[in-house]
Amino acid sequence: MKKGILAIAGVAVVALIARKAQQRKAFVKQIFDEYDVRERTPFGFADRIRSMSDDDYAEMKAKVKSHFGRGCCKTKAAV
To answer: Which of 15, 35, 36, 77 minimizes the number of CB atoms within 10 Å of its CB?
Structure first.
């Protein structure tokens, strides 16, 4: 009985992880399409960033940060 419950929980966790990965992949594809990045590699993305204006870069950076920067790398103050 316990093994069955653990197996079901494991499958549910894998499904949640796969769903989150798919959402992130779709977001990155949307950013590439929106900012006309033709080469789908980090180098192509970097080349496109170099050719952007400062305003476009700030807008894209804010979008990426709002999507991927949730709770990451927050330091806790020592009490």
So the answer is: 77
